[in-house]
Design a protein that fits this description.
By secondary structure, the protein is of the alpha+beta class. It is built from ten helices and eight strands. The longest helix is centred in the middle third of the chain and has 30 residues, at 167-196. The two termini are 38 Å apart. The mean pLDDT is 96.
């Protein structure tokens, strides 16, 4: 372990990393309307963008334009109020052992076991496949753990019960906070690849390339189809201390504030995402045993994956 580190970003530092497609999706807009975020703010450019849509869609495009204008204005407001976004991570020597990854937090300490699920259909992938198997002679591999969060106060702005309560502006705060947390993760992962871990120091990718995940390795978040068990958050919290950036866990492993994310960073050049899919009772029993839990304890976390 390099000892967990936190990068504190101001709002303007992560705004270029916001994936506006997901922001507009949250508001019910098709992805094509998110292109407004790529348009220069002058009236001429905005008018040209508007007329690029067929007449039947221009009213909807005008709504998207107004929403982006209000969101951009609100981001300046958040910056002025000194809100920040936080990315916390650590890098650990590790080996794989079947469907587990064994982390070595400190030299001479017992390894920490993170257990994962394997697909029950071809190509039978598991995240541990992308980590070097244990060997008494081989050097250990490395894995990154991360969490990120926007300041909790952003989600609370204009909330019900406040003197300035406003349903629309509150929803705008929530959807922007989600995007800011993801943007901090995107920028933080880039910094890890280039510098802290440094396995691609010369990486030079555009933001569009980052959104298309053209970088080496993967960054599966808890809740992804290849990482469906939300109870993993308890393990990551033990190793990273989520509370250092204001994240708390509920009894079912959900994170608060809502604008938070957590997961793994894997560098293997052939690593890819996949869906674990359905698992049978035998795999549930095996998984529970490896995690030191009972099947009954894990069933609530794996409901949609159980046969």
């Amino acid at each position: 372990s390099i000892v967990a580190q936190t990068i504190h970003y101001s709002i303007h530092e992560v705004v270029p990393y916001i994936n506006w497609s997901y922001f507009f999706h949250a508001w019910g807009f098709a992805a094509r309307f998110a292109t407004i975020a790529q348009i220069h703010g002058c009236d001429s450019c905005r008018a040209q963008w508007l007329t690029s849509f067929p007449a039947s869609e221009r009213s909807r495009a005008a709504e998207a334009m107004q929403l982006h204008k209000e969101a951009s204005r609100f981001l300046f407001e958040l910056e002025a109020q000194h809100f920040r976004v936080h990315f916390r991570f650590d890098l650990f020597p590790c080996f794989s052992q079947d469907e587990d990854i064994l982390l070595q937090p400190q030299p001479g300490t017992p390894p920490v076991r993170l257990s994962f699920l394997r697909q029950q259909t071809s190509p039978y992938l598991c995240l541990s496949d992308f980590i070097r198997p244990f060997s008494a002679t081989a050097a250990p591999d490395r894995i990154g753990l991360f969490c990120s969060a926007a300041d909790a106060g952003i989600e609370q702005l204009y909330a019900d019960g406040r003197a300035d309560a406003d349903v629309y502006r509150h929803l705008l705060c929530q959807t922007l906070a989600d995007r800011l947390a993801e943007a901090a993760t995107e920028r933080g992962h880039q910094a890890v690849r280039r510098s802290y871990w440094g396995y691609v120091p010369a990486e030079s990718l555009s933001v569009s390339d980052l959104f298309a995940e053209r970088f080496q390795g993967i960054r599966p978040a808890v809740g992804y189809p290849c990482l469906p068990d939300q109870s993993l958050n308890f393990d990551l919290h033990e190793l990273l201390d989520f509370s250092a950036i204001g994240i708390q866990l509920t009894e079912n492993g959900a994170m608060t504030p809502h604008a938070s994310t957590s997961g793994l960073m894997i560098a293997h050049p052939e690593a890819r995402y996949f869906a674990v899919g359905r698992i049978d009772e035998d795999q549930l029993q095996n998984y529970a045993q490896r995690k030191g839990r009972t099947p009954e304890e894990l069933r609530p976390f794996l409901g949609s994956n159980l046969m």
